[in-house]
Amino acid sequence: MKIRQIARSVMAAVIIGLACGFATLAKAKTTDQSDLWWIPNESGWGIQFVQEETTIFATMFVYGTDNRPAWYTATLSSVGFLTWTGKLYATTGPWFGNPVFDSSQVTVNPVGIMTFNAPTINGIATLTYDVNGVHVVKAIQRQTLVALNFNGTYVGTLSQLGSGLPCSPARNTSGTPATFQITQNGAAVTIVAIGSADTCNLSGAYTQAGHFGSVHGTYSCASGDSGTFAVFEMAVSWYDFRARTRLESQSGCTLKGYVNGLVQPPPTQ
Question: Does residue 29 lie within any of the structural domains?
Answer without folding.
Answer: no
